[in-house]
Design brief:
β1 and β2 (17-31) form a beta hairpin. This protein has helices spanning 53-59, 98-103, and strands at residues 2-11, 17-31, 38-49, 63-64, 66-79, 86-97. By secondary structure, it is mainly β. The chain is globular, with a radius of gyration of 16 Å.
Length: 104
Amino acid sequence: MVTITGYRTRYTTGGDKKIYLQVEGGVKTTASQKTGRVYLTALKASVFAAVDEEVAKAMIGHQLPGTIKQLQVEPYQIINDETGEVRVYNHRSEYVPDELMELA
């Protein structure tokens, strides 16, 4: 099970408004490359939702059947706008509903 923890509003290049639900479920271990310390972090993902903002707000706290999987991808960079720090990632997180897990 995953829990809906929030939502984000994003706009396409054409100006269309899209709602993405933020979901959390499970934990993973992460080792710091600088210190070597191991941390537990929550698995998080975003899921497109064909709902408006009022419905998205009402969905916060609800649970959905499924899990969050980490997928290996080509390395990509994320720049922290506040600090200018550049981080390189080689994975992304994706919500997988139980129905799709049963097919795999």
